[in-house]
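Re: weekly structure request thread

Next one in the queue (189 aa):
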Amino acid sequence: MPKIAVLISGGGSNLQSVIDNIKNRDLDCSIEYVIADRECHGIERAENEGIKTVLLDRKKYKNSLSEKIGEILEENVDYIVLAGFLSILEPEFVKKWDRKIINIHPSLLPKYGGAGMYGIKIHEAVIKNKEKESGCTVHYVDTGIDTGEIIIQEKVAVSPDDTPETLQEKVLEKEHIILTKAIKKVFTD
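Done, posted below.
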């Protein structure tokens, strides 16, 4: 059974989705670690499930964050899932884990990806640009920012009355579905 680590920076709803899909046997893997780069609700979710959690404050570890993550995960996991993880991993780390790290992003990449494009900022940009559709993408992590090979995408319609918050909710609902699909696909690739 594959072993994964989930890296988070926020509320952990995508983490919870993975946990729930493991529990209902829709996903055949184990979460060995949840690593957060700041205090967040996702840590509490993991602890409530008895999952090993590690807080590596990005302000403290700065450029050595990837190295610290590597020390913890080396030989303990097969894959890394970035689920709302906001820190950028160092190129050496990414190369070492080539095609073993995936990320979920709340836009239809390549649109609205890259430095500074995260969270509500993406949905604000989508609405400002009067896009007719948005969505989410799971992709392999490479040494760029949101530039890795796309594994799966899911679209949502942008309604004329959508706000950044309502669009965020619609996209997040799809994220919870496609993250599990993408993890399964990575296991079989």
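The longest strand covers residues 133-140. The chain has one domain: 3-188.
Next request, please.
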